[in-house]
Every structure is written in C-alpha cells, then in structure tokens.
C-alpha cells in the first residue's frame, strides 16, 4: 500500500521580479514553449516534459502570508539557495543560445568526469543559477 503514497513531481516554482519577462526569457534562452501566462502576469508556466516550470512574483501576497517574504541574494556574489538543471543533448549549442538571449555566462560547458556529465552554468535575468548539462553517463568500468 505504501506505493500509493509516492508523489509525482508537479512543479518547480521560481520566484521572479517580472513573470512575463522571465517566461519570455526562459522560452527564448532555453527553448521552452509557453504553456500559460495569466492576464495578471502573476503566474506563468513553461512546457518542460512531465513536470512544469512555473513563475510567480517574489512578493506574491498569498505566499508571503503563508511563509514570509521570499529571500533573495543581497548581491551578485551571493548564490540563490537552489539551482535549476536543464538537460540537453548538445550542451554547447544550448549554452550559446542561452547567452545570446540574455543569460549571463558563469562557466563554459566542460566534461565532468567525476559524475559523467558535460555542464555549463549561466544566471537568468533574476540572478538564479541555471546548470545546463548533458545526460549523465556513468564512468566506464575497466
């Protein structure tokens, strides 16, 4: 019976300064299709496979009442307490596209032998770290 309690992962919600701008940025920089942007611009969603990447304002009233003010880094030197990892078959092309569409490059894509993935990092228009990685391939055994 415990298997009935296993949840499906539904959303990653990103708190942003401007929902419409972030939805547009993610669509152009990372290649997503917009699923929804409500008329009030207080909620936006991107099609991302089995789950959804959603955006809502940093100072959304309903959330503030429940959990307090959303904490944001106080400077560009502070890293947000999460990162979004997007997986691509061609990380170099995806990284180039993101930077050409306004993402700030943090580190160029490189192969990480320790976990069998090629990864590069950018920051989005709100300063959130986005890891752009290839599918993970386990190291070859001798």
From TrEMBL:
Residues 8-135 form the VOC domain. Pfam families: Glyoxalase. SUPFAM superfamilies: Glyoxalase/Bleomycin resistance protein/Dihydroxybiphenyl dioxygenase (SSF54593). This is Uncharacterized protein LOC111286132. It comes from Durio zibethinus.
